[in-house]
Amino acid sequence: MAGKKFYTVWEGRRPGVYASWDECKKNIEGWPNAKYKSYPNKQEAELAYSQNPAKHIYKKANSSLPSSTSGKGNVGSPNKDSICVDAACSGNPGLLEYRGVDFQSRDEIFHRGPYEQGTNNVGEFLAIVHGLAVLKQQELHTKIVYTDSNTAMTWIKKKKCGTKLEMNRKNGELFDLIYRAEKWLENNDYKNPILKWETEVWGEIPADFGRK
Predict the structure, then answer these.
(1) Distance (Å, rounded) from C-alpha 13 to C-alpha 29?
(2) Of 2, 8, 33, 202, which has fewest CB within 10 angstroms of its CB?
(3) How far, CA to CA in Å, does 178 sit from each of 42, 126, 137, 171, 197?
């Protein structure tokens, strides 16, 4: 997506404000309970850095506010016993990749791509299925899967990738993955909750590629 972002790191190897995702990532990757968030400009990022990160990441409901303005705070905090998945696509369609990250350790569990001629929603769908398959293989049947894609969650419930993307000679490998993911959903039961990551309250999902 268009637009430069700045990144505030409250807890990491070297807290501060960074002008690129790569610099931010160096300071948070592998850092336990790293706290960070992206902002549309440097001024907002620096202001946020001077404040308590709880005000920006783990917002709580304010009972003195009317429900129409405090509703987003009622979601509480994310469950730490979880993995987070996300996708990034350069173009629509474009070069696609997806990954899964452990919430607590921020360790990357899987990372696939790039695949040609994909879409972000397809990547989100594949990431969720991949996460479910990994958790089932590891017998982690109660661990939560967080995604920031309502569309992908709907497709998972239907056990069908609802993309309107047309197959061509460039994205044949991607469509093979879609077919395999759909078959996995048809042939496997899972108990893992698939929950929406509340970006507006918690900040960017930990699996975010930082390209927004």
Answers:
(1) 9
(2) 2
(3) 39, 7, 19, 11, 23
CA-closest candidate to residue 121, choices 85, 156, 84, 163: 163
The Cα 199–Cα 212 span in angstroms is 13
Burial zone of 46 (CB within 10 Å; 0-12 exposed, 13-18 middle, 19+ buried):
middle
**d(C-alpha 60, C-alpha 49), whole Å:** 19
Please report the sign of the dihedral spanned by the C-alpha atoms of residue 23, residue 28, residue 34, residue 38: positive
**Threshold 0.85, pTM exceeds:** no
Task: Give the residue among 125, 135, 114, 124 at the shortest CA–CA distance from 159.
Answer: 125
How far is Cα 12 from Cα 24, in angstroms, rounded to an integer?
9
3-class SS shares of the chain: helix, strand, coil, % to 5: 35, 25, 40
Kindly report, residue by residue over 65-81, the tens digit of the pLDDT: 232 233 344 457 889 89
Q: pLDDT of 34-91, one tens digit each?
A: 888 888 888 888 888 878 777 777 543 333 323 223 334 445 788 989 999 999 998 8
User: In a 3-state reduction of DSSP, which class is residue 186?
Assistant: helix
> Cα dihedral sign for 207, 109, 118, 183?
negative
